[in-house]
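Here's a chain:
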Amino acid sequence: QVHVVESGGGKVQAGGSLRLSCAASGNIFSINVMAWYRQGPGMQRELVARITNGGTTNYVDSVKGRFTISRDNAENTVYLQMNSLKPEDTDVYYCNAEIQAMDRLTYSYWGRGTQVTVSS
């Protein structure tokens, strides 16, 4: 069994910063891609940023230059540093991890989400 748990959400004023963390634990052989998504009410879940186990990163255009994704492979943890936050960044942020289990099969796991609220 695998657990993926996010932390670090909260409320901040526009222009402020937050750092999200996501830790995976359990039946893990290796983790391929780790990513952050976000979803607003009635909206589709949107990929915000992703990082491979080799460190290659990708970002949605709206966060480029403001958000930075990083990971600690030894701790099975991914981070999202969010700077210069805007009200339109308000959403529930979800962590996703593509995990290769001990049986060598790969599964996709989601966290429960953490709320980020940016006030103007």
About this structure: The mean pLDDT is 96. The chain has no helices and eleven strands. The first strand starts at residue 2 and ends at 7.
